[in-house]
Amino acid sequence: MLNLKKVKSISQNMGQRVSQNVKTRASGAVSKVGQAKSKATKKRGGQQEYVVALDIGTENVKALIGKFGDDGTIEIVGMGRAHQSLSDMQAGAIADIASVVENCDKALNAAEQEAGVSVRTAVIGIAGELVKGTTTTVRVARKAPTEPLDVVEMEKIIKLVQERAEVKAKKQLAMELGGKSVEVRLVNSALVSIDIDGYPVTNPIGFQGKDVIVQLYTAFAPMIHIGALERTAAELDLDLLAVAAEPFAVARSMIGNNPNQNLSTILMDVGGGTTDIAVVNEGGVQGTKMFGIGGRAYTRAVERDLGVDFQEAERLKLGLGTNQVSATKEKEIETALEKTLDVWTTGIELALGEFDKLDHLPHQIYLCGGGSSLDMLIDELQNSVWYKALPFTRKPVVSLINPDQVAGITDSTGKVKDHTYITAMGLLRVGLDTMQYAGGGNNTIREKLDKMLRV
Known about the structure:
Blueprint: H1 8-36, E1 43-44, E2 47-48, E3 50-56, E4 60-68, E5 74-83, E6 89-90, E7 93-94, H2 97-115, E8 121-126, E9 132-141, H3 151-176, E10 184-196, E11 199-201, E12 211-222, H4 223-235, E13 239-245, H5 246-255, E14 265-270, E15 275-281, E16 284-291, H6 295-306, H7 310-318, H8 327-353, E17 364-368, H9 375-383, E18 397-400, E19 409-411, H10 422-438, H11 445-453
Parallel strand pairs: 3-8, 5-19, 8-13, 14-17, 17-18
Antiparallel strand pairs: 1-2, 3-4, 4-5, 6-7, 9-12, 10-11, 10-12, 14-15, 15-16
Helix pairs in contact: 1-2, 1-4, 2-4, 3-11, 5-10, 6-7, 6-8
């Protein structure tokens, strides 16, 4: 994961806008967080025992404090949540650092008060349409096919794949931004598969062969977005352990620590500003896609068609199916929502259509995120024929992710009860991954391979 450095260009670009306002707010935020508990973050075997996951969403900031167990499990010991203002986020990315810092501080304070510890190490999620996650395949012809593969050679191969993936991500972003060049940084990298002379292997070390084919999932994010997260963490006096593409984090939450996990599924995180999709095939992340339609787009549709303000539109939207709006008004709301629903479904079709290297798409679809609380979304995916033009072998089965389905994470607070916390739980898993592979020591060959992929 990320060993994050200061991004000078971001500080210069944002300095004038944030300036003293950020410093004033942040200094208050830091002092409050620092005073929450005098007990410092504990250590275990030279590693952090506690990490906080910050899911900075369009609607809410969620903070989960996780305590790592010796057996690779995570216990949630603190939870905090704070609402975001309309202008704080734009399409899943931070738009107002000062305000987001203040909201993060509120969520952190609540989580630390409950956990009874002050945690300084954080994992933060990143989302938005400009975050690109794809699986890149590279074939390497070895010069000495009779020599067994070793860790050094595999490291060179993986570096080659990552470099090619970065070029691909930059080209894609430049095309979407009308030719404008954008600096990006690798945020996540995970091994999907390795074949040697057509033979699939889980551990390539020691094998002989001429042709090595490596499939590697990589996620890149624009420096402007990463810089905003770095700045936010710095203002909160947090050590940023990792930044994770949120759909990748959701996938990690479901895959867990089991090396034999053969999960095949489509994961959709419907937030306030974006829908993030991850396709997992036999335990490997095949790729992630994001597009800018989330819960707020539905609220805006109600606001526009019914001529009410945003807060009232949100209330009406959430009142569907709970007998909180009249039957007449309910029909008007549904009509307004259906227009956006059609566009959203088309976005899913287009996103899944880009996974053209898979013979077929997994038929199990799981949804999470606050935006997926709208019953119409699941009804549409279950009951319409949106999937007919895609390579499904059978009709998709659609459901919400329950926290109990998240591998290796338990909740001692009793507050992490629904699908809206799955992304934050996934960020805790990414934190544990990072800790394990940064620890060094007598790692197995597989652990050494995984360590190469840590950013």
